[in-house]
UniProtKB/TrEMBL annotation:
Residues 37-207 form the FAD-binding PCMH-type domain. This is FAD/FMN-dependent dehydrogenase. The lineage of its organism: Bacteria, Bacillati, Actinomycetota, Actinomycetes, Pseudonocardiales. Belongs to the oxygen-dependent FAD-linked oxidoreductase family. GO terms for biological process: cytokinin metabolic process. The keyword Metal-binding does not apply. GO terms for molecular function: cytokinin dehydrogenase activity; FAD binding. Its cofactor is FAD. PROSITE patterns: FAD_PCMH (PS51387), OX2_COVAL_FAD (PS00862). InterPro entries: Cytok_DH_C_sf, Cytokinin_DH_FAD/cytokin-bd, FAD-bd_PCMH, FAD-bd_PCMH-like_sf, FAD-bd_PCMH_sub1, FAD-bd_PCMH_sub2, FAD-linked_Oxase-like_C, FAD-linked_Oxidoreductases_BP. The keyword Oxidoreductase applies. It comes from the Bacteria.
Length: 453
C-alpha cells in the first residue's frame, strides 16, 4: 500500500487528511527555492489544523517515516524536502487571528506579509521583519528571522511570546518562557528538528507612519565598516543594512540607513548623518509609507518572476562574523566570487546582546557593545551549468570553514553540501539542552531524519 494510502487510513485526525501523491504535487514538493537539491517525497499532507499535524507525526513516529516541514519552501539546500518521506505543507495553516493588545496570533504557514497587514490595521507592527515578507512565520522562526531592525530588537524568535508546537511524538504542546521552556528553546531557530510550530503569538510595537531610506555609498571598506559600527552603536537609525556592490571592476559599499517617523519634522537629518564619511554626491534618499518600506522587495520579486531569475538555482550562503575578523574574511571571500548584476552581497552589523534565542548561534563579541556581522553571499546560478554549480557549493563549503576558523557561525537555510556543518558543534553550549529536548520530543528522530543544514 502506498504511503499516502497508509497515511490516510491510519491517521486518526478529526476529519479526512488532505494527502496527495499525484505526480504534479510530488514534483512541486521535490525542489525548494534554492533549486540545488532534488528529493521526491512519498506523500504530501496539507493540514488544516494542529490535530492534522499531530496525526501525521504520530503515524510517522510509529512507522519511522521521515517528515519534512514546508512553510513557503524558501530553503536553499533541501531543508524542506524529504526523499520518500512525508512533506507537511503548512500552507494549509495560514490564518492570522484577530489579536488583542500588543500581540498577534498567526498560524505557522501565514506569511509575514499577512501578519504585517493585520498588525498595521491596528497601528502595530512586528519590531523585526525579514527583507522579504513572502516567508512563512514557521519558516523564519525555525531559523531565527533577522532584518535591518535586529541591531535594536534582536531576532524574530526573540519577540515570540508563545508557540503551539506539535512534537515529533504527535503531541500538541503550548510552550513559552514560562511553560515547557525546553521545547520553546528547542524549536526557535531549531530548524524544525524537535517539533512543528503550528501557531505563534508574536509581540508587536507601535508602527510608524513613514520611512526615509538613505543609500550612503563608500569606496573605502574601512570607512564603511566604521560608519556602520557608529550608527549601530548610537542607534541612530531604526533600520540598518549594508551591501557590497561591484561597479566598473571596483567594490562599492552601500549603507542603507532608514528612519521611521510620524512627521517629517521628527527626523533631524543633520544630526543623523553627522561625522559619517560617505560619498555625499552619490547619496540617494527615498520616502515610503511604513507598510511599503516593509514590503520593499515586492516589486523586485515580480520582476524576477517575470524574467525567470526567481526560478534559477540560488546557492546562497549567510554567515555571522566577529568584528575583529570581518574585514579580513569578507576580503578573502570577495576574492573568490564573481559578483554579477543578479547577485546580492549583504554586510551589516547586529548586536549579539539583543539576541537571546539560545539556538541562534552568533560569534561571541569581546564586549557587549561590539557588533557581530551578517555577511550574505546571495548569488544566482545558471541551471544549465552543473560544473559551475558544483564549484559554487565547494566555494560555500570553503568559506564556511574559513568563517568557523575565524570564530564565526553559519545561518541555517544556507546552501552547504551535506556534512559541512556539524549541528552539535554549531549549537555549542546549547547542545546538551537541545539533545535532551530531541530525545524527549522526537525520540524516533522522524523530524531530524529529513533535515539537512
Ligand atoms: C528571497 C529570500 C529572502 C530572505 N530574507 C531573509 C531575511 O531577510 N531574514 C532572514 O532571517 N532570513 C531570510 N531568508 C531566509 C529564510 O528566513 C529561511 O530560508 C526560512 O527558513 C524560509 O522560510 P520558509 O517558510 O520558506 O521555510 P521552508 O523553506 O519551507 O522551510 C525551511 C526550514 O524551516 C523549517 N520549518 C518550516 N516551517 C516550520 C514550522 N512550522 N515549524 C518548524 N520548522 C519549520 C523546515 O523544517 C526547514 O528546515 C530569506 C530567504 C529568501 C529565499
Amino acid at each position: 500500500m502506498s504511503l499516502a494510502a497508509r497515511l490516510s487510513r491510519s491517521a486518526p485526525g478529526p476529519g479526512p487528511l488532505h494527502v496527495s501523491d499525484d505526480e504534479a504535487t510530488l514534483a512541486r514538493f521535490s525542489r525548494d527555492w534554492g533549486g540545488l537539491v532534488h528529493a521526491r517525497p512519498g506523500a504530501v499532507v496539507r493540514p488544516s489544523c494542529a490535530a492534522d499535524v499531530a496525526a501525521v507525526l504520530a503515524f510517522a513516529s510509529d512507522t519511522g517515516t521521515p517528515v519534512a516541514l514546508r512553510g513557503t519552501g524558501h530553503s536553499c539546500f533541501g531543508q524542506s524536502l524529504t526523499e520518500g518521506g512525508v512533506v507537511v505543507d503548512l500552507g494549509g495553516l495560514a490564518r492570522v487571528h484577530p489579536g488583542t493588545g500588543r500581540e498577534v496570533v498567526a498560524d505557522a504557514g501565514a506569511s509575514w506579509r499577512r501578519v504585517t497587514e493585520s498588525a498595521l490595521a491596528r497601528g502595530l507592527t512586528p519590531a523585526v521583519l525579514p527583507d522579504y515578507l513572502g516567508l512563512s512565520v514557521g519558516g523564519t522562526l525555525s531559523v531565527g528571522g533577522l532584518g535591518g531592525a535586529s541591531h535594536r530588537h534582536g531576532a524574530q524568535t526573540d519577540a515570540v511570546v508563545e508557540l503551539e508546537v506539535v512534537t515529533g511524538r504527535g503531541e500538541i504542546v503550548r510552550c513559552s518562557p514560562e511553560r515547557d521552556r525546553d521545547l520553546f528553546d528547542a524549536v526557535r531557530a531549531g530548524s524544525g528538528q524537535c517539533g512543528v510550530i503550528t501557531r505563534a503569538t508574536v509581540g508587536l510595537v507601535t508602527a510608524a507612519r513613514s520611512a526615509r531610506r538613505r543609500k550612503l555609498y563608500y569606496r573605502d571598506v574601512t570607512a564603511f565598516l566604521a560608519d556602520q559600527r557608529t550608527v549601530v552603536d548610537e542607534e541612530r537609525f531604526d533600520h540598518v543594512e549594508g551591501r557590497v556592490l561591484r561597479e566598473e571592476g571596483a567594490w562599492l559599499y552601500r549603507l542603507d540607513a532608514t528612519s521611521y517617523y510620524l512627521l517629517p519634522s521628527d527626523v533631524d537629518e543633520d544630526a543623523l548623518l553627522a561625522d559619517l564619511s560617505f560619498e555625499a554626491s552619490l547619496t540617494e534618499t527615498a520616502e515610503y509609507s511604513y507598510g511599503d518600506f516593509c514590503d520593499r522587495m515586492a516589486d523586485g520579486e515580480r520582476l524576477l518572476r517575470d524574467n525567470g531569475e526567481w526560478y534559477r538555482p540560488h546557492p546562497w550562503l549567510t554567515v555571522f562574523l566577529p568584528d575583529a575578523e570581518v574585514a579580513d574574511v569578507v576580503g578573502q571571500a570577495l576574492d573568490t566570487v564573481d559578483v554579477g548584476d543578479s547577485d546580492t552581497v549583504l554586510l551589516y552589523p547586529l548586536r549579539a546582546d539583543r539576541i537571546t534565542t539560545p539556538l541562534l548561534r552568533l560569534p561571541t563579541p569581546a564586549t557587549a557593545e561590539e557588533p557581530v556581522w551578517l555577511f550574505g553571499l546571495l548569488t544566482v546560478a545558471d541551471p544549465h551549468d552543473p560544473i559551475d554549480l558544483a564549484r559554487r557549493l565547494e566555494r560555500n563549503a570553503t568559506l564556511h570553514e574559513l568563517v568557523t576558523a575565524a570564530g564565526g557561525t553559519g545561518y541555517p537555510g544556507s546552501a552547504l553540501p551535506r556534512g559541512c556543518v556539524d549541528w552539535t558543534r554549531h549549537v555549542g553550549d546549547a547542545g546538551s539542552a537541545w539533545e535532551a529536548a530531541r530525545r524527549r520530543y522526537d525520540p524516533a528522530g522522524v523530524l531530524a531524519a529529513a533535515h539537512s543544514w
